[in-house]
Amino acid sequence: MQSEIKQWGNSAAVRLSRTILAQAGLDVASPVEIEVMEGRIVIKAATTPVKTLKLPYSEEDILRGMTAYTAHADELASVTGTELDY
Predict the structure, then answer these.
(1) How many CA atoms lie less than 13 Å away from 28 in the CB half-sphere?
(2) How far, in Å, CA of 42 to CA of 27, rounded?
(3) How many Å apart are CA 23 and CA 25, to the nearest integer?
(4) What pLDDT digit, counting tens, does each position of 15-74 carry?
(5) Domain 6-45, architecture per CATH
(6) Euclidean distance between CA atoms 43 and 20, whole angstroms
(7) Distance between CA atoms of residues 82 and 84, nearest Å
(8) Nearest to 46, CA basis, from 31, 35, 36
(9) Which residues of 53-63 are buried (b: 16+ CB within 10 A; e: fewer)?
(10) Within the chain, what is the greatest distance between any pair of CA atoms?
(11) What is the Cα–Cα distance from 59 to 55, expressed in whole angstroms?
């Protein structure tokens, strides 16, 4: 398969077809390692799992009990004099 390097923001990107990913045993969300070997760019499945961030609260925990009234409670608060001092 032949492809072309394209601009993606400030980076470069190459699109990989679903067939190519399947042949390599990869999927869209697969963690990969990328390295240059003898002038070639090699992409392979990551041998170590990608670290995930474990936060103390889930989104569900944060939103629990929120209503249309409490969602914007900061807009209902009054400014004190000390908040305006520099």
Answers:
(1) 2
(2) 16
(3) 5
(4) 999 999 999 999 998 989 999 999 999 999 988 776 777 888 888 888 888 887 777 766
(5) Ribbon (2.10)
(6) 12
(7) 5
(8) 31
(9) eeeeeeeeeee
(10) 66
(11) 10
0.70 surpassed by pTM: no
Q: CA distances (Å), 22 to each of 14, 16, 26, in order?
A: 16, 10, 6
Q: Which amino acid is at 46?
A: A
Interstrand relation of 6-8 and 40-45 (parallel, antiparallel or unpaired) = unpaired
Q: What is the pLDDT, as a whole number, of residue 74?
A: 65
**29, two tokens:** 């969300």
Q: What angle do CA 10, 16, 21 make, to 5 degrees?
A: 135
Which tokens belong to 49? 């799992």
Q: Which two tokens stand for residue 70?
A: 């409490």
- Token code pair at residue 72: 């914007």
Residue with tokens 């009054």: 78
